[in-house]
Amino acid sequence: MSLRIAGLCSRCIRAKCSPKSNTRSKSTIPQIFQVPLTRAVHTSRPSPLSSSLSRNGASRTIRRSLQTQRFQTFTPPSPESLGKAAPAKQYPRTIKWGRRLLYVSAVFGTLYIVDTQLYASSITRSLRSFALGVVVAADYKLNFRPNPLFGGDITDLHRRSAERLFALLHQNGGLYLKIGQAIAMQSAILPPEFQKMFARMFDDAPQNDWKDVEKVIREEFGGRSPEEVFGVSFSNEPGLGVMEKKARASASVAQVHWARLADGREVAIKVQKREIAQQVGWDLWSFRSVFASDN
User: Fold this and answer.
1) Which pLDDT tens digit goes with each residue over 169-211?
2) Do the strands 242-243 and 254-260 form a parallel or antiparallel pair, or are they unpaired?
3) CA 177/CA 38 separation, integer angstroms
4) Taking Cα atoms as reference points, which of 229, 283, 220, 272 lies closest to residue 250?
5) Secondary structure E strands in 41-155
6) Quick check: 235 pLDDT over 60?
7) Of 27, 43, 226, 265, which is most buried with the most CB atoms under 10 A?
8) Looking at the predicted structure, is the pLDDT value of residue 94 above 90?
9) Contact at 8 Å (CB) between 194 and 158?
Protein backbone atom coordinates (compact mmCIF):
# COMPACT_ATOMS: atom_id res chain seq x y z
CA MET A 1 0.00 0.00 0.00
CA SER A 2 2.85 2.35 0.89
CA LEU A 3 4.53 1.50 -2.39
CA ARG A 4 1.45 2.50 -4.36
CA ILE A 5 1.20 5.85 -2.56
CA ALA A 6 4.90 6.48 -3.20
CA GLY A 7 4.40 5.70 -6.89
CA LEU A 8 1.51 8.13 -7.17
CA CYS A 9 3.49 10.89 -5.52
CA SER A 10 6.40 10.37 -7.91
CA ARG A 11 4.09 10.55 -10.90
CA CYS A 12 2.66 13.84 -9.63
CA ILE A 13 6.14 15.31 -9.22
CA ARG A 14 7.13 14.30 -12.74
CA ALA A 15 3.94 15.77 -14.14
CA LYS A 16 4.64 19.13 -12.52
CA CYS A 17 8.14 19.19 -13.83
CA SER A 18 7.15 18.31 -17.41
CA PRO A 19 6.53 21.15 -20.02
CA LYS A 20 2.86 20.23 -20.40
CA SER A 21 2.12 20.46 -16.70
CA ASN A 22 0.41 23.83 -17.06
CA THR A 23 -2.29 22.40 -19.35
CA ARG A 24 -2.86 19.02 -17.71
CA SER A 25 -2.24 19.72 -14.03
CA LYS A 26 -5.77 20.87 -13.40
CA SER A 27 -7.38 17.85 -15.04
CA THR A 28 -4.92 15.01 -14.21
CA ILE A 29 -4.95 15.10 -10.45
CA PRO A 30 -8.72 15.45 -10.00
CA GLN A 31 -9.24 12.80 -12.67
CA ILE A 32 -7.25 10.23 -10.67
CA PHE A 33 -9.15 10.79 -7.45
CA GLN A 34 -12.62 11.49 -8.88
CA VAL A 35 -13.02 8.60 -11.27
CA PRO A 36 -14.26 6.20 -8.59
CA LEU A 37 -16.61 8.86 -7.22
CA THR A 38 -18.01 9.69 -10.64
CA ARG A 39 -18.60 6.04 -11.43
CA ALA A 40 -20.29 5.45 -8.10
CA VAL A 41 -22.65 8.43 -8.37
CA HIS A 42 -23.49 8.51 -12.08
CA THR A 43 -24.39 5.10 -13.50
CA SER A 44 -27.00 6.13 -16.05
CA ARG A 45 -26.59 6.93 -19.73
CA PRO A 46 -24.46 10.04 -20.41
CA SER A 47 -26.39 13.15 -21.28
CA PRO A 48 -26.14 14.98 -24.62
CA LEU A 49 -24.41 17.82 -22.81
CA SER A 50 -21.49 15.61 -21.74
CA SER A 51 -21.11 14.14 -25.22
CA SER A 52 -21.07 17.60 -26.80
CA LEU A 53 -18.46 18.78 -24.35
CA SER A 54 -16.26 15.75 -25.11
CA ARG A 55 -16.56 16.42 -28.84
CA ASN A 56 -15.48 20.02 -28.36
CA GLY A 57 -12.37 18.97 -26.50
CA ALA A 58 -13.55 20.20 -23.11
CA SER A 59 -13.19 18.32 -19.89
CA ARG A 60 -14.36 14.71 -20.24
CA THR A 61 -15.37 14.47 -16.59
CA ILE A 62 -18.58 16.29 -15.56
CA ARG A 63 -18.87 17.21 -11.96
CA ARG A 64 -22.30 16.63 -10.47
CA SER A 65 -23.61 18.25 -7.33
CA LEU A 66 -25.16 16.09 -4.68
CA GLN A 67 -28.28 16.99 -2.68
CA THR A 68 -27.06 17.46 0.86
CA GLN A 69 -30.28 18.94 2.42
CA ARG A 70 -32.50 16.75 4.50
CA PHE A 71 -35.89 15.74 3.03
CA GLN A 72 -38.85 17.53 4.63
CA THR A 73 -42.53 16.69 4.23
CA PHE A 74 -44.95 19.35 2.91
CA THR A 75 -46.82 21.24 5.61
CA PRO A 76 -49.67 23.70 4.88
CA PRO A 77 -49.10 27.34 5.84
CA SER A 78 -50.35 28.50 9.20
CA PRO A 79 -53.17 31.08 9.46
CA GLU A 80 -50.74 33.58 10.95
CA SER A 81 -48.52 33.41 7.89
CA LEU A 82 -51.43 34.15 5.53
CA GLY A 83 -52.20 37.47 7.14
CA LYS A 84 -55.51 38.94 8.22
CA ALA A 85 -58.59 37.64 6.40
CA ALA A 86 -60.55 40.13 4.30
CA PRO A 87 -64.10 40.74 5.57
CA ALA A 88 -67.03 39.44 3.49
CA LYS A 89 -68.63 41.95 1.15
CA GLN A 90 -71.91 43.30 2.48
CA TYR A 91 -74.92 44.70 0.60
CA PRO A 92 -76.66 46.88 3.19
CA ARG A 93 -78.84 48.80 0.71
CA THR A 94 -80.11 45.66 -1.01
CA ILE A 95 -80.82 43.98 2.31
CA LYS A 96 -82.63 47.08 3.59
CA TRP A 97 -84.93 47.40 0.58
CA GLY A 98 -85.49 43.65 0.46
CA ARG A 99 -86.56 43.71 4.11
CA ARG A 100 -88.92 46.62 3.43
CA LEU A 101 -90.44 44.80 0.46
CA LEU A 102 -90.95 41.73 2.62
CA TYR A 103 -92.70 43.74 5.33
CA VAL A 104 -94.96 45.53 2.85
CA SER A 105 -95.88 42.25 1.14
CA ALA A 106 -96.67 40.66 4.50
CA VAL A 107 -98.91 43.57 5.52
CA PHE A 108 -100.83 43.65 2.24
CA GLY A 109 -101.12 39.87 2.20
CA THR A 110 -102.59 39.88 5.71
CA LEU A 111 -105.04 42.64 4.80
CA TYR A 112 -106.11 40.77 1.69
CA ILE A 113 -106.77 37.57 3.61
CA VAL A 114 -108.73 39.43 6.30
CA ASP A 115 -110.74 41.29 3.66
CA THR A 116 -111.51 38.10 1.75
CA GLN A 117 -112.48 35.98 4.72
CA LEU A 118 -114.26 38.52 6.95
CA TYR A 119 -115.53 41.29 4.68
CA ALA A 120 -116.31 39.37 1.47
CA SER A 121 -113.68 41.42 -0.47
CA SER A 122 -115.52 44.68 0.27
CA ILE A 123 -112.33 46.70 0.79
CA THR A 124 -110.79 45.35 -2.40
CA ARG A 125 -113.92 46.20 -4.39
CA SER A 126 -113.95 49.73 -2.97
CA LEU A 127 -110.29 50.30 -3.86
CA ARG A 128 -110.97 49.01 -7.34
CA SER A 129 -113.81 51.53 -7.71
CA PHE A 130 -111.63 54.45 -6.59
CA ALA A 131 -108.88 53.40 -9.00
CA LEU A 132 -111.33 53.32 -11.90
CA GLY A 133 -112.68 56.75 -10.97
CA VAL A 134 -109.16 58.21 -11.04
CA VAL A 135 -108.34 56.60 -14.41
CA VAL A 136 -111.59 57.74 -16.09
CA ALA A 137 -111.32 61.27 -14.68
CA ALA A 138 -107.71 61.59 -15.87
CA ASP A 139 -108.66 60.24 -19.32
CA TYR A 140 -111.43 62.81 -19.75
CA LYS A 141 -109.22 65.59 -18.39
CA LEU A 142 -106.46 64.90 -20.92
CA ASN A 143 -108.41 63.80 -24.00
CA PHE A 144 -111.78 65.58 -23.90
CA ARG A 145 -110.63 68.27 -26.33
CA PRO A 146 -110.51 68.83 -30.09
CA ASN A 147 -106.94 67.52 -30.23
CA PRO A 148 -106.58 64.67 -27.70
CA LEU A 149 -103.14 63.99 -26.30
CA PHE A 150 -103.29 60.21 -26.87
CA GLY A 151 -105.05 60.13 -30.22
CA GLY A 152 -108.58 59.14 -31.16
CA ASP A 153 -111.65 61.29 -30.86
CA ILE A 154 -114.50 61.91 -28.41
CA THR A 155 -116.30 58.74 -29.55
CA ASP A 156 -113.28 56.59 -28.71
CA LEU A 157 -113.04 58.29 -25.32
CA HIS A 158 -116.68 57.48 -24.48
CA ARG A 159 -116.32 53.91 -25.73
CA ARG A 160 -113.27 52.97 -23.65
CA SER A 161 -114.72 54.65 -20.55
CA ALA A 162 -117.96 52.69 -20.94
CA GLU A 163 -116.01 49.45 -21.34
CA ARG A 164 -114.02 50.15 -18.18
CA LEU A 165 -117.13 50.92 -16.17
CA PHE A 166 -118.97 47.86 -17.48
CA ALA A 167 -116.01 45.59 -16.61
CA LEU A 168 -115.87 47.07 -13.09
CA LEU A 169 -119.58 46.53 -12.43
CA HIS A 170 -119.45 42.92 -13.58
CA GLN A 171 -116.25 42.19 -11.69
CA ASN A 172 -117.53 43.61 -8.41
CA GLY A 173 -121.04 42.21 -8.80
CA GLY A 174 -123.61 42.50 -6.05
CA LEU A 175 -124.99 45.99 -5.56
CA TYR A 176 -122.78 47.28 -8.37
CA LEU A 177 -124.90 45.37 -10.86
CA LYS A 178 -128.06 46.86 -9.36
CA ILE A 179 -126.65 50.38 -9.75
CA GLY A 180 -125.64 49.55 -13.31
CA GLN A 181 -129.17 48.39 -14.13
CA ALA A 182 -130.57 51.60 -12.66
CA ILE A 183 -128.21 53.63 -14.83
CA ALA A 184 -129.17 51.58 -17.88
CA MET A 185 -132.84 52.48 -17.37
CA GLN A 186 -131.86 56.18 -17.55
CA SER A 187 -129.27 55.75 -20.27
CA ALA A 188 -131.05 58.21 -22.60
CA ILE A 189 -129.12 61.03 -20.98
CA LEU A 190 -125.79 59.27 -21.57
CA PRO A 191 -123.71 59.16 -24.77
CA PRO A 192 -124.62 56.42 -27.29
CA GLU A 193 -121.53 54.39 -26.37
CA PHE A 194 -122.73 54.14 -22.76
CA GLN A 195 -126.26 53.23 -23.88
CA LYS A 196 -125.03 50.29 -25.93
CA MET A 197 -122.81 49.03 -23.14
CA PHE A 198 -125.33 49.36 -20.30
CA ALA A 199 -128.02 47.58 -22.33
CA ARG A 200 -126.14 44.37 -21.46
CA MET A 201 -126.54 44.96 -17.70
CA PHE A 202 -129.84 43.07 -17.67
CA ASP A 203 -128.21 39.79 -18.66
CA ASP A 204 -127.80 37.05 -16.08
CA ALA A 205 -125.30 37.85 -13.36
CA PRO A 206 -122.75 35.29 -12.10
CA GLN A 207 -124.34 32.81 -9.69
CA ASN A 208 -122.96 31.41 -6.47
CA ASP A 209 -122.13 27.77 -5.85
CA TRP A 210 -124.54 25.49 -4.04
CA LYS A 211 -122.37 25.41 -0.91
CA ASP A 212 -122.90 29.18 -0.49
CA VAL A 213 -126.65 28.78 -1.01
CA GLU A 214 -126.78 26.03 1.62
CA LYS A 215 -124.88 28.20 4.10
CA VAL A 216 -127.41 31.03 3.65
CA ILE A 217 -130.33 28.67 4.24
CA ARG A 218 -128.71 27.20 7.36
CA GLU A 219 -127.96 30.69 8.73
CA GLU A 220 -131.54 31.87 8.13
CA PHE A 221 -133.28 28.77 9.50
CA GLY A 222 -131.21 28.03 12.57
CA GLY A 223 -128.89 25.42 11.10
CA ARG A 224 -131.56 23.38 9.30
CA SER A 225 -130.63 21.92 5.92
CA PRO A 226 -132.55 22.68 2.67
CA GLU A 227 -133.98 19.16 2.77
CA GLU A 228 -135.53 19.81 6.18
CA VAL A 229 -136.76 23.33 5.35
CA PHE A 230 -138.43 22.60 2.00
CA GLY A 231 -139.12 18.88 2.39
CA VAL A 232 -137.11 17.92 -0.68
CA SER A 233 -134.56 15.27 -1.52
CA PHE A 234 -131.63 15.36 -3.92
CA SER A 235 -131.60 11.57 -4.32
CA ASN A 236 -135.27 11.16 -5.49
CA GLU A 237 -136.54 9.55 -2.30
CA PRO A 238 -140.26 8.64 -2.46
CA GLY A 239 -142.66 10.96 -0.66
CA LEU A 240 -140.33 13.99 -0.88
CA GLY A 241 -140.00 16.83 -3.32
CA VAL A 242 -137.05 17.71 -5.51
CA MET A 243 -134.92 20.83 -5.91
CA GLU A 244 -132.33 21.95 -8.41
CA LYS A 245 -128.92 22.93 -7.09
CA LYS A 246 -128.13 24.99 -10.19
CA ALA A 247 -129.97 28.29 -10.32
CA ARG A 248 -132.42 28.94 -13.13
CA ALA A 249 -131.63 32.67 -13.04
CA SER A 250 -129.18 34.91 -11.20
CA ALA A 251 -129.67 38.57 -10.43
CA SER A 252 -127.50 41.16 -8.75
CA VAL A 253 -128.40 40.35 -5.12
CA ALA A 254 -130.15 36.96 -5.33
CA GLN A 255 -130.60 33.86 -7.48
CA VAL A 256 -133.62 31.63 -8.15
CA HIS A 257 -133.77 27.82 -7.82
CA TRP A 258 -136.59 25.64 -9.15
CA ALA A 259 -138.20 23.14 -6.76
CA ARG A 260 -141.25 20.83 -6.62
CA LEU A 261 -142.65 20.25 -3.16
CA ALA A 262 -143.97 16.98 -1.80
CA ASP A 263 -147.60 17.94 -2.62
CA GLY A 264 -146.69 18.48 -6.28
CA ARG A 265 -146.54 22.28 -6.34
CA GLU A 266 -143.74 23.87 -8.37
CA VAL A 267 -142.17 26.86 -6.70
CA ALA A 268 -139.30 29.29 -7.26
CA ILE A 269 -136.98 29.64 -4.27
CA LYS A 270 -135.15 32.96 -4.29
CA VAL A 271 -132.03 32.94 -2.13
CA GLN A 272 -130.05 36.07 -1.36
CA LYS A 273 -126.37 35.84 -2.16
CA ARG A 274 -124.27 35.24 0.91
CA GLU A 275 -121.84 38.16 0.50
CA ILE A 276 -124.49 40.85 -0.06
CA ALA A 277 -125.13 41.44 3.64
CA GLN A 278 -121.47 42.27 4.21
CA GLN A 279 -120.91 44.23 0.99
CA VAL A 280 -123.92 46.54 0.90
CA GLY A 281 -122.59 49.01 3.49
CA TRP A 282 -119.18 49.32 1.80
CA ASP A 283 -120.78 49.59 -1.67
CA LEU A 284 -123.07 52.46 -0.70
CA TRP A 285 -120.16 54.32 0.91
CA SER A 286 -118.09 53.83 -2.25
CA PHE A 287 -120.88 55.13 -4.47
CA ARG A 288 -121.30 58.27 -2.39
CA SER A 289 -117.55 58.90 -2.29
CA VAL A 290 -116.95 58.35 -6.01
CA PHE A 291 -119.91 60.39 -7.21
CA ALA A 292 -119.15 63.17 -4.75
CA SER A 293 -115.54 63.34 -5.96
CA ASP A 294 -116.65 63.39 -9.61
CA ASN A 295 -119.07 66.25 -8.97
Assistant:
1) 888 887 888 888 887 887 778 888 888 888 777 766 778 889 9
2) antiparallel
3) 113
4) 272
5) none
6) yes
7) 226
8) yes
9) yes
